[in-house]
Amino acid sequence: MKDSYWELTLTLNEEYTEFIADFVANIYGDGLEIGKNNIIVRGENDLTYVKEAVESLIATLGSVIVVTFTLEEKQNVDWIKQYQNSIEPIEAGKFYIYPSWFEPKKDKINIKIDPALAFGSGHHATTHTCLEAIGERVTAGNIILDVGCGSGILGLACTKLGATVDLCDTDPVSVQSCEDNFKLNEAKYNNLWEGSANKSEGEYDIVIANIIVDVLRFIASDLKNATKAGGTLILSGILDTKLALVLPSFLELKLIEQKQKDEWVTLIYYKETNE
Predict the structure, then answer these.
(1) Where are the domains of the chain?
(2) Would you identify the CATH topology of the domain 121-270?
(3) How many CA atoms lie within 13 A of 209 on its CB side?
(4) pLDDT tens-digit readout, 209-268
(5) What is the distance between the alpha carbons of residues 171 and 180, in angstroms, rounded to a whole number?
(6) Could you identify which of 56, 103, 163, 218 might form a hypothetical disulfide with 142, taking C-beta atoms 3.0 to 4.6 angstroms apart as the criterion?
(7) CA 32 to centroid of chain Cα atoms
(8) Residues facing 91 on adjacent strands
(9) Residue 120: CB partners within 8 Å, gap ≥ 6?
């Protein structure tokens, strides 16, 4: 172990924390510390490339996300062990999400996700409420699309309920992370691609998109087109203060349920027709 390590702190608006943390975790897989409006990355080597990758992502999105970076060299501690010790398994509806250094539960549907390898471990409120919705609404034989799949946790939950799952993410490293987590759980998906819902073929019984408000609005038409008549659309990643910005984009669908955990909202829509 080296005498020192590097610590990169990203400070940003809470609305974008999960989105950026997901991106960072897929670039650098040794564990993140996620705060309400900050992300801390630690490593034995210089983390400037992580900073530059986030800056490139922000530029691609039109600089709608403002991030302040602090990069410091610090005296070494076993921070990976400290991080692992801070992670506890969680229950979300029917599901038990646990890291590989814990044991599965006999009375739950088990999903193994190592937070040190990918963000999306069920601890964030949006992932938690999406898992609850999946447990309540997904049944064997359903055809599912998970848009912005990240770690693949939501698609894994659907698969374990007997659904056939397609997944996509615009970040190629997230696509790889998703594939790795399916292998970790000895599960199979139907299709996985780099891109978004506009590249899907056919329609789905249930479409899930746990992203951020700006992206949900931008791809609203693609999400609706991918949902078949009589199907369900689950939207999450919505800060309650931003809810009014999302609703107008989905007015032609029937809002059947609104879940909230902390300040985060998940919307569940029913699509009556294709007209």
Answers:
(1) 4-84, 121-270
(2) Rossmann fold (3.40.50)
(3) 30
(4) 999 898 999 999 999 999 999 999 999 989 898 899 999 999 999 999 999 988 899 999
(5) 15
(6) 163
(7) 14
(8) 96
(9) 22, 25, 113, 127, 150, 151, 152, 153
